Each structure stands twice: as C-alpha cells, then as structure tokens.
Amino acid sequence: MAEIKVDVKGQTCPVPLVECRKALRKAAAGDIVEIEGTHPTSKKEIPMAVKALGYKIISIDEEGNTWKIKICKV
Amino acid sequence: MEDKNMQSLDNSKKNKATIIVHSGDMDKIYSALIVGNGALSMGMEVSLYFTFWGLQRLKKGGLDKGPLSKMHMFGLGKMMIKKRMNKANVASLDKMITDFKELGGKILACDMTMEIMGVKPEDLRQDLIDDYCAVGTYIQEAMESSMTLFI
Question: Which Gene3D superfamilies does the record cross-reference, listed alphabetically (chain A) (predicted)?
C-alpha cells in the first residue's frame, strides 16, 4: 500500500479538489492519499467529494492556516 | 476498481452534468470549466457543449482570448481582473481544460456553429474535442443528467 502526498498549499478553487481527484484516480485500492493545503473551503469540500466517491477519510488535521486530510481509497 | 465504484453510484442516481458553453467571455469560460472540474472531482460524468461564441474559444490559441462579460473597457478591465487572478493564484484556463480532459470530461463542438461561422475542424483544438455534434446529442445526454446548465 503506497502513500501518495499531494501539496496544494497556496492553491485556490478548484485546484485542491481537482488535484485530490487526480491523485485518487491514480491510486490503487488500499492506497492512502495525503493532501495538504491552505484554501479554507477545500477543507470542508474535499471530505464531501470523498464521501460522494465512496472512499474513506482517515483523518483531518489543522495547524495554523494549513490543513492535512488523509484519505483511503477503499 | 474505481469504475466499479462509479457504477454503483450510477445505479443509485443519475450522476452526470451537461453544460452548454454558449458564451465566449473569459469569465464565463472560467465558470464552465470550474463547475465542470468540480463535478468531475466529485465523481460525476461531465460533457461540455461548445456552441456559438463559446466555440470560438476552442480555436487554436483562442482559449483565453475572450472579453470580460462586464467592465471589459476595451481590454483594460480584463487586464485588471487577470492581474488580480494572478495575485490570488487562480489556475489558468489552459491548466483547467487539461485537468478537465485528464479527469475524463468530454468536449463536444457544435457543427452548425462551425458551418455558420466558417470554422473548419483544423482551425480547432482537435486534441481536446471528443466529437462534433448537434442538438440531438445534447438532448440525449441531458436526459441522462441530473444537472444541466447554460452558460
């Protein structure tokens, strides 16, 4: 199981969502995608997309302006 | 594996967006591509139908050549908005359309517009276009869609 890191710090709508989807498409089943960004709304919307896609959120962390979301492609 | 997931979603509800891109204004091309990419990112299928002024944006080198829909002011308004977009780190239309295709979005060109405006396939970004079609294709796809927009 691979862990794929995606850095979208400083990027705005719709880039965080799009890059998250691109990474999930490339991931194999069981892989973890870790996405790190600063766009505030994406912290709320990436979990919406993950739910719609039927994948699993492992964790959501925030430190200062930066958030980190871990997703498992189940 | 992913396709299997998508299929199970498809069965529960119509999971497709079809968007008519009638305007060639820069800000509206942004709207169409942002909505399209957002929908693809959330697992929907998306078709963009480029017609009339929108089709002009599929000409080679024409994607970001449209005016602003308001306050264009002979290009001054567009220049100011572009500057502010750069500052806010907004992605270019070129990146957005490349992402759109990478995520499996479909681009369709209206063949009647091509005839009226004397546009030949070789004038257009054929690398982006999936098909040339008319209203019947749009209606058929719209019937299968839960979301359809006219921009």
Answer: TusA-like domain
